[in-house]
Amino acid sequence: MRGRFITVEGGEGAGKSSNLDFIRQLLEASGKQVLFTREPGGTELGEAIRELLLGHKHTGMADDSELLLMFAARAEHLHRKIKPALIEGTWVLCDRFTDATYAYQGAGRGIELSRIAQLEQWVQGDLRPDLTLLLDLPIEIGLERAGKRSAPDRFESEALHFFETVRSGYREIAKQQPQRVKVIDASVPLPDVQRQITAVIEQFLA
Ligand code: TMP
């Protein structure tokens, strides 16, 4: 049987890393073989594109360049890693995917969503995540957490308003597609976040 495709999304400092690890453990404990990967990145070419996108060398790149680079990395990722894994029955757990493009390049940068949808169809065909967990929390809390970690990358250096629009972009997707996208309140203490995640994963596995 084809593997399942699960993605995790959220704003800066939403606790993606520790929660992704937690999700992976839940899936493995239930006997799934899991490929863990991330976007932009996941392949040699994709990681090189990630450096171009997140580094400060190309600050001020055109919004369309940013969008196309995201999809270039995604095309490679799908071709080399995601699709082959799903075909052989491996479950794929991915740190961000196309919802991030709708939220960051669509809502955040203001690129028309229909244009992103065209690229999505071109690059992915009918492939969409089976389940998406959206780690949602107020911008101020997220940025404070992210700021404590390391020097800000090109996205983390954006103004507050940008993150507000990204957050509403994500929440709009969750509103439109409640079957696929499950919103997790990531503002509460970690054990409470993990309780919510466990409930979602258990329901999905059932
Ligand atoms: P992160 O995975 O460490 O959070 O960093 C990836 C950054 O790239 C994050 O700021 C969100 C951004 N991003 C987009 O803008 N569009 C996309 O399609 C993806 C996958 C990520």
Protein described:
The protein is built from 8 helices and 5 strands; from the N terminus they run E-H-E-H-H-E-H-H-E-H-H-E-H. With 206 residues, the chain is an alpha/beta fold. The protein has one domain: P-loop containing nucleotide triphosphate hydrolases (Rossmann fold), CATH 3.40.50. Helix 2 (44-54) runs antiparallel to helix 3 (63-87) and helix 4 (98-108) packs across helix 7. The longest helix has 25 residues, at 63-87. It starts with a strand and ends with a helix.
Write the layout of secondary structure elements.
Blueprint: E1 5-10, H1 16-29, E2 34-38, H2 44-54, H3 63-87, E3 91-95, H4 98-108, H5 113-124, E4 131-136, H6 139-149, H7 160-176, E5 181-185, H8 190-205
Parallel strand pairs: 1-3, 1-4, 2-3, 4-5
Helix pairs in contact: 1-8, 2-3, 3-5, 4-7
Considering the chains and any ligands shown, give keywords for the structure.
206 residues, 5 strands, alpha/beta, 57% helix, binds thymidine-5'-phosphate, 8 helices, Rossmann fold
